[in-house]
Amino acid sequence: MSDPQGGKQPILNAPGVVRWLLTITLGAHILRMVSGDGLLIPQNVAGEIFFTLAFIPARYVVQVDPSGDLLAAIVSPVGHTLVHGNWIHLLTNLGFLLAFGTPVARRMGPVVFLIFYGLCAAAGAFLFTALSPTQITPLVGASGAIFGLLGAILRVALYPPEGAPPAPFPFNNRRTAFMFAGVYLAINLLMGIAPALFGVDAAIAWEAHLGGFAAGFLLAPFVDGRGRVR
Predict the structure, then answer these.
(1) For a designed S-S bond to 128, which of 32, 74, 162, 207 qualifies (C-beta 3.0 to 4.6 A apart)?
(2) First-last CA distance in the chain
(3) Using only C-alpha atoms, what is the Rg of the chain?
């Protein structure tokens, strides 16, 4: 990825906003793991925090917990990105956040990037709700937001702004970008339909992935700081 001065930066030389987001997400998971043993805060308080951050579609259809529904309904569309099922889930998402978030944050700047990240997370959560409106199993993880970052990179690759630096490999040309995104989406959809094939015990919220990806692809023209995508 080229910088405005024409030099080259490695993709893993992440902007500050990405590093902070990685740190906060990792810290939230560590705090949850420690709190689960009652070492820092009571277990019941840790449980309340978890269910406030986790996204539950049924909250928007029926009252699951009247005492906490309002705060959770406001917070959880984005807050669920801070909650992960296990270390593998967390580290996988952090790796993709670093890879996809770095080039996107360089194009948008920190404030717009955070807004964009949150919108993609919310879009994924609400598509999940539209397709599973009475679901009470919590939706957790940053995958929807990360798929939004992938959608933004693909949009820039397919419709690069005139005079703007290209997206990083493999998104530096349309063919490889389309192939990479297609394979990545296909794998995640397959994981959602048949997670056992990949050795995954929990259900994969492919709906949230698809919603985040669509939001990122569609919103990219309005927030790309390196030029409007046409």
Answers:
(1) 207
(2) 20
(3) 18
Q: Which of 106, 225, 214, 94 is nearest to 154 (CA)?
A: 214
Regarding pTM above 0.85, the answer is no
Tokens of 101: 């978030």
What percent of the chain clears pLDDT 70, i.e. is strictly above it? 75
Residue 29 CA, chain-centre distance (Å), reads 15
Q: How far is CA 134 from CA 64, 130, 206, in A?
A: 10, 9, 17
In degrees and rounded to multiples of 5, residue 38 shows phi and psi of 75, 20
Distance CA(16)–CA(22), nearest Å, equals: 10
Mark 20-48 as b/e (b = at least 16 C-beta within 10 Å).
Answer: ebbeebeebbeebeebeeeeeeeeeebeb
pLDDT (tens digit per residue) in 96-155: 899 889 889 988 889 999 999 999 999 999 999 998 888 888 889 999 999 999 999 888
Owner of token pair 């009571």: 42
3-class SS of residue 139:
strand
Percent helix, strand and coil across the chain, each to the nearest 5: 65, 0, 35
How far, in Å, CA of 82 to CA of 172, rounded?
Answer: 31
As beta bridge partners, residue 2 has 8
Quick: pLDDT tens for 186-224. Answer: 777 776 666 555 445 556 778 898 899 999 999 988 888
